[in-house]
UniProtKB/TrEMBL annotation:
Domain of life (superkingdom): Bacteria
This protein's UniProt keywords: Nucleotidyltransferase, Transferase
Every Nucleotidyl transferase domain range: 3-201
GO biological process: O antigen biosynthetic process
Organism classification: Bacteria, Pseudomonadati, Pseudomonadota, Alphaproteobacteria, Rhodobacterales
Protein name: Glucose-1-phosphate cytidylyltransferase
Naturally occurring in which organism (per UniProt): Roseivivax marinus
GO terms, molecular function: glucose-1-phosphate cytidylyltransferase activity
């Protein structure tokens, strides 16, 4: 099953980072968040990706061209027919289609432009800026169980402010940006049938608007409720929170390390 990742946005709320690179290439723990997202899927054996490029797409192309050939130890033999010889390859066995979808194309248009690369069966879709510890096989099983065209992962958003617990006036616990206990939002991590492409009219369509609204109207959109960790990297503060989690070793989305 193939996974589509939208990686073409400009990330204007991360301007300090995205003035020189696209948002999905902003790093957490020395790796682009796009790498983290792909590792989430790869952990469960899903290694076939189509990445929708837009703003500074060449940056992402260069990263994967170099990642595949230069990752790990090398031997360089000057004048040889094979001047660069990689040693044991220790990176994931990814196949990655890097598809230009236009700098100004909206999310629905980017999804539509990936249609020729997604095959004729069920596929997955997510955004290039969000990580989660969602169990991908359970998500797929849920999708197959209901027989509808689309499954969306519903998540509890992180609280906007820190959360305190008290014993009288004594603070017994302080959590920075915990998950809220109420409300559900779109956490991406979709599982979709090819007929979903018919709900997208063109480049100027936000996938989150008419396509999802019309799928819901037609009774074709189901929600997989994920109670675990989820976070989107929308702002510099979000990046710092994720980096802090990484640095402390509390990395709930990094199941490949567990």
């Amino acid at each position: 099953m193939k996974t589509a990742i939208l990686a073409g946005g400009k990330g204007t709320r991360l301007a300090e980072e995205t003035s020189v690179r696209p948002k999905p290439m902003v790093e957490i723990g020395g790796r682009p968040i796009l790498w983290h997202i792909m590792m989430i899927y790869s952990h469960y054996g899903f290694n076939d990706f189509a990445v929708a490029l837009g703003y500074k797409g060449d940056y992402i192309k260069r990263y994967f061209a170099e990642y595949g050939s230069l990752h790990g130890n090398l031997t360089v033999r000057m004048g040889s027919d094979i001047p660069v010889e990689p040693h044991q390859r220790n990176h994931a066995p990814w196949a990655v289609d890097l598809i230009e979808t236009g700098d100004e194309t909206l999310t629905g248009g980017r999804v539509k432009r990936l249609k020729p690369y997604m095959g004729d069966g069920t596929f997955m879709l997510t955004w290039g800026d969000g990580v989660s510890d969602v169990d991908i096989p359970k998500l797929i099983d849920f999708h197959k169980s209901h027989g509808k065209l689309a499954t969306i992962t519903a998540v509890r958003p992180p609280a906007r402010y820190g959360h305190m617990k008290f014993d009288g006036d004594k603070v017994t616990a302080f959590e920075e940006k915990p998950q809220t206990a109420e409300g559900w939002i779109n956490g991406a991590f979709f599982v979709l049938e090819p007929e979903v492409f018919d709900y997208i009219e063109g480049d100027d369509v936000m996938f989150e608007h008419a396509p999802l609204e019309n799928l819901a109207r037609d009774g074709q959109l189901m929600a997989y409720r994920h109670e675990g960790f989820w976070s989107a990297m929308d702002t510099l503060r979000d990046k710092h929170v994720l980096q802090k989690l990484w640095d402390t070793g509390d990395r709930p989305w990094a199941r490949w390390e567990q």
